[in-house]
Amino acid sequence: MFELDYEKVLKKVNKKTAIETIAKKVDKDKSNELRVWMKNENITSGINIDEDTKRFYPFNNLASQIIGFCGSDNQGLAGIEARYDDVLNGENGKILKMTDAKGLDISDVSENYEPAKDGNDLVLTIDATIQGIAEKYLKEACIDNVC
């Protein structure tokens, strides 16, 4: 399922820590495959899948002064990212399960998985070609005039 080094994984799972990260930046299809395998094998504890999302910028740094940027938690911190953060953000997924008074899982009750929901897209009317040309000449002008 995953192309992981057996010895490295074995070392991690044999540590005495409560939580150990085995893999990061796993493709969504692979994590879904793991979920199906866990369900088929009736594995309800011991493996946790934490989802992480990132915003996608189709033109990289183009118009970055307008678009703005996000912090490490994907919260918009400047520009359009900050202004429309509530529209762009989705909802985190959840795993709902029943526990007893001590916080231990009740094994007879199945858990419910609620997948994450994508946020909305925001389409701007910035012409990427014109913006690219403007940024190129602005950069050249700044170099020529020591901005």
TrEMBL record:
GO terms for molecular function: penicillin binding. One of its GO terms (biological process) is cell wall organization. Keywords: Membrane. Pfam families: PBP_dimer. Its main location: membrane. It is found in: Membrane. SUPFAM superfamilies: Penicillin binding protein dimerisation domain. Residues 20-104 form the Penicillin-binding protein dimerisation domain. One of its GO terms (cellular component) is plasma membrane. InterPro entries: Beta-lactam/transpept (IPR050515), PBP_dimer (IPR005311), PBP_dimer_sf (IPR036138). This is Protein containing Penicillin-binding protein, dimerization domain protein. It comes from human gut metagenome.
